Amino acid sequence: MTRSDTRRDTIAPQPPELASPWRTEARASLQAEARAFARETVLPIADELDPQKAQMPPSLIAAMAAKGWFGITIPQEHGGLGLGVFEYCLVSEELARSWLSVGSILARGQGLGTQTLDPERRAALMRRSAKGEWIGSISLSEPNAGSDLAGVATKAVREGDTWVLTGRKRWAGFAKGAHFIEVLARTREPKPGESRSAGLEPFLVVKQPGTFPEGMKGRVIDKIGYHGFETFELDLEGVRVPESDRLTGLYGDQGADADSGGFAAVQRGLNIARVHTAARAVGVARAAVEDCQLYLQEREQFGHPIGDFQALRFALADMAAEVTQARAFWQQVAHLLDQGEPAESESAMVKLTCTEMAVRVTNQAMQLHGGNGYTTERRVERYWRDARLTTIFEGTSEIQRRIISDRMLPRP
């Protein structure tokens, strides 16, 4: 089969614009801008680079920065757009529809790596973050601490005004290309009666993009999908961090403070991250639906487009209904977070629901494409690979079920 037969350069008709109880003209305009950028700029790059497992070009990141998207949730007084979780997820869904990693890179801004102890430095870093000049990586997990973040073993030992970090971290996305890496480390062992998370604090490891700092080595993890930026396992052998770079929170959490505890701030940030993941999963699943919409009209068997067969039409209808339902759910939870609600159970529910939906829908999309779906000639295999990851990162589906059930029933 030749490339011209695959119709990879064809894009499905525009889906309906934002329609929900939370629709405003400003949000509809933002959505339209992001959708056009995703289709015209991101999709051709993804089609070229994803099969090569290549990284997104700096020019693409610069183009997103020019639109202010790395500062969607940063207050206007710090150079950001001053918008909420809703708008952040709205843009991310559109970008993820073309390439999941592009919808993800926005999370490396949004005030990440700015929660330092010095308010003046914090404000300066916020301005850089809003401009896309302070893009980071988050290093929480370890080989033996993923779902159980309280099991983090990386040590942070204080020597005067410096902390010395030693340990091994895993799943640090964009670690080499970033301006900094946020590392979760243990400053002390829990005291009797304390939570296992006691003593865990995030630290800011500042570095030059394209390098690792002294005392750190990185090994690229070969992933089956989620291409666009590299993901690393990191060895920390005496990485030195000044006390001024001990953080009070992650994910640019504006509600974090030095007295709340670093681990508690991590948990708050994870609620936003889970809704963000839900929106990205919806974007990937929507891509699969739109590609199937075209393919069912393009592919002919028995003298008819296969879209004439009721079984396939109904499968597409079910897929579209699931995507629409999932989108409404992430919008609802994003609205709750913007209203200041903790929404911990809801964040777990929406992450669980939307990501599992994305796996089902992209799997069905491959089935509707038949043999052509099991080739790299069609985008649908990319959607399937990327959707599978969404049920794992930011907390597996099993962890989301545990969070939900623990708030419904007494803990064992």
UniProtKB/TrEMBL annotation:
InterPro entries: Acyl-CoA_DH_CS, Acyl-CoA_Oxase/DH_mid-dom, Acyl-CoA_Oxase/DH_mid-dom_sf, AcylCo_DH-like_C, AcylCo_DH/oxidase_C, AcylCoA_DH/ox_N, AcylCoA_DH/ox_N_sf, AcylCoA_DH/oxidase_NM_dom_sf. Residues 1-23 are annotated as: Disordered. Residues 1-10 have a biased composition (Basic and acidic residues). The keyword Cell membrane does not apply. Residues 261-409 form the Acyl-CoA dehydrogenase/oxidase C-terminal domain. It holds the Pfam family Acyl-CoA_dh_N. Its EC number is 1.-.-.-. Belongs to the acyl-CoA dehydrogenase family. Residues 138-239 form the Acyl-CoA oxidase/dehydrogenase middle domain. GO terms for molecular function: oxidoreductase activity. Residues 24-117 form the Acyl-CoA dehydrogenase/oxidase N-terminal domain. Its cofactor is FAD. Keywords: FAD, Flavoprotein, Oxidoreductase. PROSITE patterns: ACYL_COA_DH_2. It comes from the Bacteria. This is Acyl-CoA dehydrogenase family protein. It is an enzyme of class 1 (oxidoreductase). It comes from Methylobacterium komagatae.
